[in-house]
Automatic annotation (TrEMBL), chains A, B:
This is Rrf2 family transcriptional regulator. GO terms for cellular component: cytosol. It comes from Sinorhizobium americanum. Signal peptide: none annotated. InterPro entries: TR_Rrf2-type_CS, Tscrpt_reg_Rrf2, WH-like_DNA-bd_sf, WH_DNA-bd_sf. GO terms for molecular function: DNA-binding transcription factor activity.
Length: 162, 162
DNA sequence: GCAAATAGGGATATCGTTTATCCGTAATAG
DNA sequence: CTATTACGGATAAACGATATCCCTATTTGC
């Protein structure tokens, strides 16, 4: 069980978009080139962000993406769920219904204990992701990324932002 | 991203094995029939439990599986990791290495902030699973499963336990 | 108005994992 | 000795993730 690589891409793209000056847009082409990933496929991830309402888009030359909210209103969970979906990672196939001892027509009132524990764990995962904002990531990166590289990357992006 | 159905099977099998009298064994065949899942494939899940040291096995007629520890020494995490593996669900493809602004020969000292947050969430998921013991599950099931069905299932298992 | 660039979406192909089955081997109870 | 079992390897089918291609509508700059 492994998350899509698109999740990593989407998170990185949002981090870049967070540094974009108000009103500017950055294209799929630029984002793909910056991260060294296939443009067409990255496009699908960005479309997921768009459908989830996390980013705004414009068409035409100088078009592209920008964040739809401020970085402190965007959580990791927003981004992860936009790409990976909101479905729980544990699906119950209700195998208890196959118990040969079961009376005919017996009907489960509620999801069983196994499923509930697995879903609580899933929720713990989501809760952790919900607790980290995009702005937290930016703060950390600003501290950890060497100043020189940070500045050059910023300029690289600005040159291509429409 | 979805967990293998084998995870559900393994959890249910362990719950059944927990009710087995000391020294008795239950075969793959019985477990597969009880849960209504393919015997050959369930066998793979049980082998995973065996390799992880969570269950003991014996060969021959009246052979099968029993728990290697008491139910309060077995956590959900033990069982889930035996089947699903211990690998983290977020893999870092190090796409920051593709940043065109990066100086030649630049070397990352540590995993980046994105990966760390995702790994913390992964750990929160595992911590939750670690906090629930198999004995907790049995307690809950004993309360929720109708007494009649519980008793009949127990007898069904005993008839087939070697 | 026109040409270039863009997001969006559908169709399709490739690849790897999950799911499932089959068979041969070694061990064990009766 | 026979029947039954766990175990492991080989293999196939089904499915989802990855990746590419192409067409459309829209917008910008000229
Ligand atoms: S016991 Fe729970 S997880 Fe298992 S089949 Fe029933 S509802 Fe699903
Ligand atoms: S920023 Fe983090 S998650 Fe992204 S490629 Fe680098 S190490 Fe991996």
């Amino acid at each position: 069980m492994i998350l899509k690589s698109q999740v990593e891409w989407a998170l990185h793209c949002c981090a870049i978009l967070a540094g974009l000056p108000k009103g500017r847009y950055l294209s799929t082409k630029a984002l793909a080139e910056f991260h060294g990933v296939p443009k067409e496929y990255l496009s699908k991830a960005l479309q997921s962000l768009s459908q989830a309402g996390l980013v705004h888009t414009t068409l035409g030359p100088s078009g592209g993406y920008r964040l739809a909210r401020t970085p402190d209103e965007l959580t990791f969970l927003d981004i992860v769920e936009a790409v990976e979906g909101k479905a729980r990672t544990f699906v119950c196939n209700n195998i208890r219904a196959n118990n040969p001892c079961r009376p005919q027509g017996y009907c489960e009132s509620a999801p069983c204990a196994v499923a509930r524990v697995m879903w609580e764990a899933d929720e713990a995962w989501r809760e952790k992701l919900r607790s980290v904002q995009l702005s937290d990531l930016i703060d950390t990166l600003a501290k950890e990324v060497p100043a020189e590289l940070w500045k050059k990357s910023f300029e690289w992006v600005l040159e291509r932002a429409g």
